[in-house]
């Protein structure tokens, strides 16, 4: 008999969790399969478990379905976090919730990155009850990294216990309010900065935070609730855009951006870049070197460099401080460096 260690995930072993850096969770098994496939550029995607949920591993990413609503995602997260703990990998893991939602004041198809998750009392806490005792856990998220070429709206997310009345919908089996009440409530949500509604993020944020891990949440919207309550048919929503955004974000995070640059980006104003940004420019076709706080783009000069390409490539991405090299050059040489300056270097986190 095979012992199921993690019943709802259908896992019999956790050794695959030892090198995991990202855990993407989404509602359905089909979506989990789609996401895992998008990461599968090296053909290393495997199904690790299948029971209530399905679990895939691909690269250093686990992709797992979590079902619908807070109770379901809480079971899924308990088992994923337990698997990480058992595999002794409890530190540097980012959980990413990828889902669909109802938008508020944003067009259908918008990707919303949650800045704060609210419960139905419109407070940023996950409320639960343990052995008759009311518990309240802060729902804390990172705002994640932003792909500049993709429009991502940042805003608060309301997580509800049901899709219908709790989301001010009049099309469930029951309706205890008028359409005017509905409109007023949605407008109120908009006015306090809520940009989408779904059913899991407040639970997700609180449980991942309680485990001391990083959580980010990106959802695509299927309707603008300021205008309507009918969802756009799934074939008219480009969920692929959300998935490719997630793959790119994970790719960027895998490049080792610090926590601060992940949250606030790697640019600190016009011509100011952080060391995290500098590190990304380490290839011949996009090569930056640094001398003190001056950053130089030297790709164009690579073939002409009298000291050879290798000496510049070795210094790429700020691997070495070139202050001494700069001093070694003649006055004319130093003037040449001036032409290549692209930015000034600043610390990733403020003072
Ligand atoms: N999921 C939700 O919870 N609400 C919506 O309106 C759409 C998707």
What does this structure look like?
The protein is α/β, with parallel strands linked by helices and 351 residues long. Helices cover 29% and strands 27% of the residues. It contains 10 helices and 16 strands. It has helices at residues 29-39, 70-86, 179-191, 201-210, 239-254, 259-264, 275-280, 309-315, 323-328, 331-340; strands spanning 22-26, 46-50, 54-58, 61-65, 94-103, 111-118, 125-130, 133-138, 152-159, 194-198, 214-224, 272-274, 282-283, 286-291, 294-297, 341-346. The strands form 3 sheets. It has a 5-stranded mixed beta barrel. It has a 5-stranded mixed β-sheet with strand order 12-16-15-14-13. Helix 2 (70-86) runs parallel beside helix 4. The model has no long low-confidence stretch (mean pLDDT 92). It binds uracil.
Q: What's the quick description here?
A:
29% of the residues lie in helices and 27% in strands. By secondary structure, it is α/β, with parallel strands linked by helices. The protein has a five-stranded mixed beta barrel.
Beta-strand proportion: 25-35%
Q: Mind telling me the C-alpha Rg? A: 24 Å
Structural class: alpha/beta
Number of helices: 10
Determine the mean pLDDT: 92
Distance between the termini: 57 Å
What are the bound molecules? uracil
Main sheet: which strands, in order across?
5-10-9-6-11
Q: So what's the overall shape? A: globular
Low-confidence stretches: none
